[in-house]
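Our platform keeps sequence and structure together, in a single record for each protein. Nothing more is needed to write down the fold, since each code stands for a local backbone conformation. An entry from our holdings is shown next, in its original layout:
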Amino acid sequence: MTNNKTLLDRELFTEALRHMSEADLVYLNRMVVERLNLLAQARSTVQLARFAQGDRICFTASDGTEKHGTVLRLNKKTVSVCTDDNQRWNVSPELLRKSNL
């Protein structure tokens, strides 16, 4: 029943969109963008919470090599990492894995 209700709600919403003024559509767009940003921020916060300063981590670099290192700092959207070869990286927390090395 939830799927039918969702489908009906989407159809009603689509019909309502057709009758909205430009000002209403601009307002709705602003609300949608704010909601998407909030969801992205919440997802990032959850991902960042998996790590702490000093944690041993690993990730696959853009060239395909496996990098191992230590978390230096948790930033707003990324994790600052010092790799074992003494390079500094800012990495999305979604790309990091805890390491046993």
About this structure: The chain has two domains: 2-48, 56-98. The first strand starts at residue 56 and ends at 60. The chain has a mean pLDDT of 92. DSSP finds two helices and five strands in the chain.
